[in-house]
Structures are given as C-alpha cells and as structure tokens.
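Issue 218. Parser rejects a valid record. Input:
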Amino acid sequence: MDQQLKRHELVEWLRSIAGATILSVSLVGQVADLETNITDPLKLARALEQRVEFLGEGPYLVQYSPGPDQSGSDPSLPYTSFAMAGTLKAEFNHHPGSYVGGYDALVRELSGFEYLAKIGEGPSGPMGHLLILIPQNPSELSQLRSVLARYSVYYAFPDETGTLNVANLKMGQGLRV
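Output the parser choked on:
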C-alpha cells in the first residue's frame, strides 16, 4: 500500500499504524534519495521528528504492509535515541578512479544498525546525511561510536540537552584518501 503525506502528517500517520511494516520511504520530487532500514512505524516517526534541515517537509511517499497491532513497540522512544552523521564520496578531477570519503564504508558498517538517510548526488559523487537509532546494548553503542568516528565526515550524539546541535558535533575521519 502507498501513502503520500507532508512530514508532520506522516509522523502522525506513522504513530497510528503500529504493527505495520514500512517497506520504503521517499521524498517526492527531490533530487536526493531517502534510504532507511527502519521498518517500525514508531521508530521512523521519531526519526522524522528530529530537527535536522536535511529531511525537508516532503511530500513523502511511503510504501507499507499493514499488520496486526503490536504492543511491543515503545511509543515513548525518546528524542535522544538518534545519532546524526554526514558522509561523502568524491572522485578527484585529475585522478579518475581515485576517491576521498568514507561513504561506502560507512553505509556498509551501518548495515547492522537502523537508520534513515538522505543521499544526494554531489558534483563528484554521493553525499549523505544520516540519523542512526542508538542501540541500548553498550557494546553495540561502542561499535557505533567507533564506526561514526572512523568513516563519517562529521557526527553527533545527543547531549544532556536532548538535541543534536553544533555543541555536540564532532569531526570524523571520513575524508581520508
């Protein structure tokens, strides 16, 4: 089934369909692609509530599969449950086949984590902004911190203010050649 909604409408609608499985989400009429492996509607609603510019207001096209209501989903998932990262892959103009950026490695290493990403084509290759669901398991959290530090251009974990802002933004090593 398909649904096309503005961002704020989508958040409300996602909260109302607990138990459904999200198959895909896309921004209608945008140059950039929206990618996610978050299938729980409540988690995706929380991701879309984040105050980050790269998500935009939509409209969003959602493909989903209805399902039975699940009482296991936690509607109170806190705002602080997402980390943010930026990445890119750029080809050198005078060295075809030579690239800078950790885009490929970051996407590969995040395959075991749930995330929502807006991926656009920059002048020399893909550029992406990601919201990653922070795992509760301490070893998985440590792994996520390590992956973001190693492969992203920048990343942020929420601080005690409950926001993702410049004060908690860190530079990653994702611009290495």
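Fixed in the parser; the record now loads. The two ends are 43 Å apart (CA to CA).
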